[in-house]
Amino acid sequence: MSEDHRCLLVVEDDPHLAETLAAAFARRGYEVHAATREEAAIGLAQRYAFTHAIVDLKLAEGSGLGVVKVLGEKEDPPAIVVLTGFASISTAVEAIKLGATQYLAKPATAREIETAFGHRAGMAMPEIEAPQVGVKAQEWELIQRTLAETGFNISETARRLGMHRRTLARKLAAHRAAAEGQETVEE
Questions:
Q1: What distances in angstroms separate CA 140 from CA 26, 46, 105, 144, 174, one per listed residue?
Q2: Structural contact between residues 67 and 57, judged by C-beta atoms closer than 8 angstroms
Q3: CA-CA to 53 of 20 to 30 Å: which in 42, 109, 160, 175?
Q4: Phi, psi at residue 97, to the nearest 5°?
């Protein structure tokens, strides 16, 4: 394997998001392997010498922290970025203790994730230029945050946002269609 060979493990239980991440990093020259469950991710971690990993904290089956632990214990551990829609200080500290390089809240762009790969303990996080956030982006962030708070219950999210359930469903469908091919990672 050449020194500039980059092998990435993507651990994400949302198939659409996993595919988006895999495509974004494949375009950046990474060899990408993906898993949707903790058990499968650990199997891949034991089989390949990953240089980088993106691990979702909350998986439908298992925990991303178990994967971080296995990767962090390797003789030559990869740069690990933990992504989550459920950020908390305690899980961030635990992820870093287990070997994560950085902990990012969703949504995060592929550029932000790649910048986070370069972070090391004790270093200041490199500056990430914040994009201009428009009204639609702010609305989308509010929708995502509310979805996470309601456990992704569409009806309850719509109620809390004061909109009709069908309107919310249309916005979600339109955003997903618009995001096809883009590198923004959202849950």
A1: 26, 38, 15, 6, 11
A2: no
A3: 175
A4: -60, -35
CA-to-CA separations, 110 to 28, 40, 166, 183, in angstroms, rounded: 9, 23, 31, 6
Could you name the CATH architecture of 135-185?
Answer: Orthogonal Bundle (1.10)
Predicted local confidence at residue 29, as pLDDT: 94
Distance CA 152, CA 186 (A): 13
For the chain, the average pLDDT equals 81
Task: Give the pLDDT of residue 135.
Answer: 63
Domain ranges of the chain: 6-117, 135-185
Distances (CA, A) of 61 to 35, 54, 84: 11, 17, 15
pLDDT number for residue 62: 76
Q: Which fold has domain 6-117?
A: Rossmann fold (3.40.50)
Pairing of strands 102-105, 52-56: unpaired
Task: Using the predicted structure, report yes or no on whether residue 167 has a pLDDT greater than 60.
Answer: yes
34, pLDDT greater than 90: yes
In total, the chain counts a number of residues equal to 187
d(CA 169, CA 166): 5
Cα distances (Å, whole numbers) of residue 36 to 14, 22, 134: 7, 12, 32
Closest by CA to 109, choosing from 89, 79, 130, 78, is: 130
